[in-house]
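Hi, here's the filled form for the chain we discussed.

Project: internal
Contact: R.S.
Residues: 227
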Amino acid sequence: MGTPLEPRDAQAEEVVDRLMEEYPDSTISLRYSNRLELLIAVILSAQCTDERVNKETAHLFAKYDGPEDYATVDEEELAEDLNSITYYNSKAGYIKSSAQDIIEKHDGDVPDTMDELTELSGVGRKTANVVLQHGHDVVEGIVVDTHVQRISRRLGLTEQKRPDAIEPDLMEVVPEDVWQQYTHLLIDHGRAVCTARNPDCSDCVLADICPSEKGDSDVDLASGEAW
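And the returned structure, exactly as it came back:
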């Protein structure tokens, strides 16, 4: 079992430093060319892999151009264009509704505040944070996806269980100037090494400071269950 650094902010800084060295080119993996495409891609990415979303949006973004196209298309047609995406019927409704609001309430532009973004259909704080960070260069929080949630708990950086509670807890210890990068680093590490079911602790640059490390630890702190 690794021994985490104390206090938590020292642990967070060491985690970021090591992962930056391990994944120097870490960045968002969704493909988009403007803010609307970013918003749509993030909506589609809920409970779906970025790889699948990128494959679907390649033809979606070629067919639709601007919020008017999404706002006026028949919802069933839009859903059919998304049919390899999880929950595609619901997401088609979110996209169409959001596009309508963007036209009617925001002069056709994707809004640039947390409050306005989270008023759009299908947009929660996680989605809004991604759009703010990568669409507007506004960083006011940490995107907590499944990788961030899992690995932050494994590393002892938070004991919170829900993303809405994990985010403010992490914001207290992760340096503000790396809030955006923190998410990308943990996503890359979660895909490559610290997977949900069978993490490769023997090849992990954080093993010696991870209280969930499988060498001696009996418990996965992400789930609270035995390995």
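Let me know if anything looks off before we file it.
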